[in-house]
């Protein structure tokens, strides 16, 4: 069945016509709201995409700087730098926490890093490479900031992408399936109601014609009965036959018709 002929299987009544009109109004409003939501999500999606591109472009420079800083620290402090750092670190000073941000009804996960406790500069006073280790640490902290930001953007990007697809499917379903079906159903109900109205009008005209014929028939019977009575009275009064009385009565009626 083509899209132009699809309709709901309903009983064509005035009540159902009102229900279909109300459903059409609701579908139209829902389509408009979902369209606005899709546009808002698309705008936010493009903004996040631009941020992801810029963050990834800067990520290469930051990671390159961090790698050079680590190489310099190893060159100055030696290969035993890993053991020194592990001995001085008890707990993680940089941590990540998450929260949700509501964008047009869609909850986007957001990640942000924070410092838990004080940062100790235990390696600064070392005889070999303390300053380079601190520079390496600062470079990698900046890398962690970008990684956390990139992870947040990537997660929001995927969430928004799925939400936009779902919203667009609903918009297309309302626009191309639900609303046309309701509109075709309303047209069908209106056509059926018009046809019923024409049938009722034709039925009333037939009934009126039948009643009119019955009334005329009753009048003719009453007139014939009255003429029969008059003919009988005339026959008795004048002593003529009933046929002659009918002929005289017919002639009298003709004369009256000629006068009028």
UniProtKB/TrEMBL annotation:
Keywords: Ion transport, Transport. GO terms for molecular function: proton-transporting ATPase activity, rotational mechanism. The keyword Ion transport applies. Coiled coil: none annotated. It holds the Pfam family ATP-synt_D. The keyword Disulfide bond does not apply. InterPro entries: V_ATPase_D. Belongs to the V-ATPase D subunit family. This is V-type H+-transporting ATPase subunit D. It comes from Salvia splendens.
């Amino acid at each position: 069945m083509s899209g132009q002929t699809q309709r709901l299987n309903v009983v064509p009544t005035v009540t159902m016509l009102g229900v279909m009109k109300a459903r059409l109004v609701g579908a139209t409003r829902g389509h408009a709201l979902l369209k606005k939501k899709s546009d808002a999500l698309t705008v936010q999606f493009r903004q996040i995409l631009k941020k992801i591109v810029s963050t990834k472009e800067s990520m290469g420079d930051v990671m390159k700087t961090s790698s050079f800083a680590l190489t310099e620290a190893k060159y100055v402090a030696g290969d035993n730098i890993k053991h020194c750092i592990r001995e001085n670190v008890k707990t993680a000073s940089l941590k990540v926490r998450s929260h949700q941000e509501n964008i047009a009804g869609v909850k986007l996960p957001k990640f942000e890093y924070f410092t838990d406790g004080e940062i100790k500069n235990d390696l600064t006073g070392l005889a070999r490479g303390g300053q380079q280790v601190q520079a390496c640490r600062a470079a990698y902290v900046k890398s962690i900031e970008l990684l956390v930001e990139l992870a947040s953007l990537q997660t929001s990007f995927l969430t928004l992408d799925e939400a936009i697809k779902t919203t667009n499917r609903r918009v297309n379903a309302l626009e191309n399936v639900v609303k046309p079906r309701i509109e075709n159903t309303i047209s069908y109900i209106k056509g059926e109601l018009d046809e019923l109205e024409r049938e009722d009008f034709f039925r009333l005209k037939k009934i009126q014609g039948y009643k009119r014929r019955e009334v005329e028939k009753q009048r003719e019977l009453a007139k014939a009965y009255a003429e029969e009575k008059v003919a009988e009275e005339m026959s008795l009064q004048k002593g003529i036959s009933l046929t002659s009385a009918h002929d005289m009565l017919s002639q009298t009626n003709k004369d009256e018709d000629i006068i009028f």
